[in-house]
Design brief:
This protein is α+β, with helices and mostly antiparallel strands and 313 residues long. α1 runs antiparallel to α2. The protein is globular. It starts with 6 loop residues before the first helix and ends in a 54-residue tail after the last helix.
């Protein structure tokens, strides 16, 4: 059911109560960010009420922020449903904040560059070239993208995706054919996000943190290769409908059981240790405004939020 005639206001108030039960310290400020998003988007206001509730509560479950300065996550309208969408830097922030990495960065490889990927030893040597103009840059042929992560113990690991795999992910992604899709407006960042997402699975394999497994499940559902929005078949229990009002079922699928389906990558051995010119992640401090310089769209204007807005009294 769509959220007409200001029903989204009550939905956000309901979400605030559930948010407080999970993460009371951030409830009011994050609902304030959500409020700003909805005030400035008629499409969000028309979204299904239950999807709004689920998306906002999942902000609490993942400990991500909707802060526009950070640009880590957004609430996106998609076929009358509200979707929690993580940015490339959002995935990076969650990895670092949960102790999975020291740093991580992603780099696109072009055909005019020196590049060598040793699959057996999981090492990469890359000598980038830099275009002199924007037109020259856009004309260059992309051959793939890789991520480089420094683990807490200092070990360096890589993940590489050839361009044909990334193109397949794009073709199979929900809404990628739209002119307004991030794949068409922010292509480079979506390419980087694709490889970071794959690396994400391996990097969290030894971490049972619920925020990480929840984030990966949400990302897989939001950007599934097979679209489920609008399906007439009964929904499988998931994080997108986990807060629907249904009778308690002791046999209901848990987050832990869902996570068991996540594929685990083999741990690479003998990683190549690059020279002193190590590529540090752009995200050095989550609260450092300058670290979030990717030009992703901002959907609202800043304004002060009255903390009493979500009061139940």
């Amino acid at each position: 059911m769509t959220n007409q005639n200001g029903g989204w206001v009550q939905t956000l108030k309901n979400a605030h109560q559930k948010f407080e039960g999970i993460n009371p310290e951030k409830a009011t400020i994050e609902l304030g960010f959500a409020w700003q998003l909805f005030q400035n988007s008629a499409s969000l206001q028309k979204c299904d009420a239950q999807s709004i509730l689920n998306a906002v509560v999942n902000v609490a479950r993942t400990s991500i922020t909707l802060n526009p300065v950070m640009r880590l996550a957004y609430l996106i309208p998609r076929k009358n449903k509200c979707v929690l969408e993580f940015s490339y830097m959002g995935l990076v922030a969650m990895l670092r904040d949960n102790g999975c990495i020291k740093s991580i960065s992603a780099h696109i490889v072009y055909s005019d560059e020196e590049f060598d990927y040793d699959v057996a030893y999981n090492t990469i040597k890359h000598k980038p070239n830099f275009a002199k103009t924007e037109n020259e840059h856009k004309s260059r042929e992309k051959i793939g993208c890789y991520s480089r992560a420094t683990l807490p113990n200092g070990e360096i690991v890589f993940e590489f995706m050839p361009m044909w795999e990334i193109d397949k992910v794009k073709r199979m992604s929900e809404g990628s054919s739209s002119q307004y899709s991030a794949w068409n407006t922010w292509e480079d960042e979506m390419i980087k996000k694709s490889v970071i997402k794959r690396h994400f699975k391996m990097l969290i394999s030894g971490n049972s943190n619920e925020a990480l497994t929840t984030a990966l499940q949400i990302e897989n559902e939001n950007n599934a290769l097979i679209n489920t929005f609008g399906s007439t078949k009964p929904q499988k229990q998931s994080l997108m409908n986990a807060f629907n009002d249904v009778p308690d079922n002791p046999n209901q699928m848990t987050i832990e059981s869902q996570v068991e389906e996540i594929e685990e990558a083999e741990e690479p051995s003998n990683p190549f240790n690059m020279s002193d010119e190590q590529i540090e992640a752009e995200l050095s401090k989550v609260k450092d405004k300058e670290s979030y310089s990717f030009d992703e769209p901002t959907y609202f204007k800043s304004e002060e939020i009255d903390g009493s807005l979500f009061s139940t009294e």
